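Comment thread on ticket #2218

A.B. wrote:
> Attaching the input chain for the structure job we discussed in standup.
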Amino acid sequence: MRSSSPLPRMSRRGRVTIGVLVGVFVLFTLLGWGVQAWTDWLWFSEVDYTAVFRGVLVTRLLLFLAAALAMAAIVGGNLWLAQRLRPRIRPHSPEQATLERYRMLLGPRLGLWIAAAAAIVGLFAGLSAQSRWNQWLLFLHGGNFGVQDPEFGVDVGFYVFQLPFWRFLLGLGFTAVVLALIGALAVHYLFGGVRLQGVGDRMSNAARAHLSTLVAVFVLLKAVAYVLDRRAMLLEYNDGVGVYGAGYADINALLPAKEILAYISVVVAIAIIIFSNAWMRNLVWPGISLALLGVSAVAIGGIYPWAVQTFEVKPSARDKEAPYIERSIQATRASFGLENAETSAYAASNLNPPESLATDTSVISNVRLLDPQLVSETYTQLQQVRGFYDFGPKLDIDRYTVDGETQDYVVGVREINYGELTAQQSNWINRHTVYTHGYGLVAAPANRVVCGGQPFFISGFLGERSQSCASPADQIPASQPRIYYGERMDDGDYAIVGKPNPDANPAEFDRPAGESGEGRESYYTYTGSGGVDVGSFSRRLLYAIKEQEANFLLSEAVNENSKLLYVRNPRDRVEKVAPFLTLDGDPYPAVVDGRVQWIVDGYTTSATYPYAERVNLQQETTDELTGRGTIQLARENVNYIRNSVKATVDAYDGTVTLYEFDENDPVLKAWNKAFGGDLIKPRAEIPPALVEHFRYPADLFKVQRNLLTRFHVTAPGDFYSGQDFWQVPNVPDAPDSGVKQPPYYLYTQFPGQEGPRFQLTSAVTPNGRQNLAALISGSYEDGKPTLQVLELPDQTAISGPVQVHQRMTNTNATIRQQLNLLSSNQAQVQYGNLLSLPVGDGMLYVEPVYVKSNQQDAFPLLQKVLMSYGDGGSYVVLADNVADGIKQLVEQGKQAAAGNPPPPPPVEGEEPPVEGEEPPTTPSPTPPAPLAPVELSAAADQVRAAITEVRAAQASGDFERYGRALKALDDALTAFQQAQGADAGGGNGAPASPSPTG
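C.D. wrote:
> Ran it. Output below, let me know if you need it in another format.
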């Protein structure tokens, strides 16, 4: 009999080898899990958020065990029952003879095989369930929203907190029944309870009762699914009108159909039990019942709703769908915080620059010229001192009150960029124990440049600084300027700090010292409370395994007083302590009470708010800045979002604090309750100095702005036609790229506001057109978020951002010539933020113009400012600064008021017309005498000399000299143009230009 065994037996050595390999694999897997769990516990203990670690871990373990045991019990129990119900006597047939060899193989260890199958199924079920820990916690701790859905009158809390977990349990139940049915059928077939050949019944009574009961349970679960589907219909997409939520056909046809199908399912389940076991004891009538259920599902749940949609709704969709469109509009505006948006009409009827522009103090004086994306290179080159310092690809905008004046500042943190360390600096000792931190928050007023286009730095200084190009004193002082936690730090950039005894020399590079920042270095020892103690041998061994680095055990740099700082990116740090939050992609630094704090906006989200529009966060928040200092959000579909949490991370010791910002958010209340009730600090405990630096979060604003392009229309009929929809314009200087223009922060005052606010602003245009439709801004008023929409008339002549940029740079020949002079083989022109500012009952556009040399390590310098007023094309100037541009625009407005068309912008060096003097409308009949060729040649020599000086200044690295050289070159070019014009008899030395409106 042994030789007839279907499978050969494995040798003892083979079994031992396999056992050892499996044991080693399990050991290392468990070791890895153990090390990760232990180090996570130590990290959460450091930041004092062990409640999160413990709560998530315990919840996941309990869900894993519950789902695994339940699934294993259901599947394993049915397999065991199937073999217990096997027939005592099996008829002789070729089929049974073939199955005998498998029965001989499985029979002696059948219990083991059943246990193994149940364990595998339970393992996968447990892994699936433990990933739903967030749904379970909300299910357990969620409350009411105080808002009822418009169809069933059920509180929205049911959809947000309970429905997702119920649907998961239902899916788990379907999976368990299907696997149990398949497994039981296989066992019954293996042991003769189900036969495909031979005479007599194909199925024993026991097998029929067992399998039919499982089928009946499946049908009962389908009845439950129909009941839940009735509620879930309010979350589905309505293709007919392009909104979410049940429409006319759903409510009037599909909804009653699902109710009928639920009752039919219950009847069919009962019929299966009765016909299979209690009455006829065959499968004909149960099969007929299942077939009727399938036909009913197709006819009642499919054909009938389709007929209603096709023949009743489509011919008059505007009227039929109107109530349901209104539901979607109201739900979307409520779930995304749009219902309180203040919409006001702004005629922008003044197309001529008014004289009030010259005296305006609420808008003009605060015009932001520094572009955070462009001047990042400038900050890095002028403020880094050492090559490993870095400010990142994009700076941030914040506001400060300096000398009693509040305005916006471009701020950046001087961090260590580990990717810029040299090969010698990158060894393990230097990378992790010497270069441990950055130094200082560098700020410059956003509306001021000096020294040939450089920012005017007022804080965060290192070494010497030019007194004419920077503030003589630090105007935003930080008592602790060292940066141990920052955006430039990745997962592997951990730091080991602490010295063995008080008398030991500091080992951490702090900052350059000495007269020139060279020759002497300042060193420092970390004294903060943050960091995990790694002084003991067990801790060093633990982190040596975690980081796979033997130097934790071998290096003398790790001593009994050492601390390990890791997870140093502020966004990653908040995400780890609050995994239930969706975080904004642009954390920003601020000096609060003398300490540098990273501020991170946290959102609570949901995807199950009935009738609300569902959007993809990644898609809605992607624009020109994504990936350039702004982190791309995950592909998360949501239809509810609130900026419920303001989180801070101390840049020195890494302290993480979560503050409640939205006191009425039910989702945040549920999460706080799930982790003990004191995880989030109440809003009343937010320090006033911190509140002053809160800003409207960018990603939330992008989502709201994009939704407002459609949902500013509140009339269902108008929404259905879509004629009043808007769109977000593309980047003005690259409209063909398809990349959206980012919103921009401004400290300014818009119409209807009582004073200047720090607000996030974006322009929108009509759908499919380029003229301006509205300005949308988000700000905080009395600590509450406020959205304001300035809506222009439908047939406005005001140009949108793309049109304005094209008209300012292309249609005016004089300006185009000057821009061409700025750009050459040696330099390139870069355009900053195009700002759309409502002022003087019209629209003012401001666009900074930067020039960047093509030489290595060059950086952009602000050289000119493009400005336009009115419709974007009639009045355009290219000025040295905002004040000069306003003067030129006002002068053009005066000439237009006097009946003269707006002239082209004056060439630099020309004196503007005297106020009150009527400008000539025709060229002077007696042009000035042309210059002699000798004078023209002298002007050309002056240009060549200026170019030589510019190159010399660039090579010297003296930026003040470089700025003077650029100014001299500009004057020389102007003189040369005048000389050319005079020599040709041009009269005023400026090339003729057609009227911009021609």
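A.B. wrote:
> Thanks. Noting for the ticket: The radius of gyration is 37 Å.
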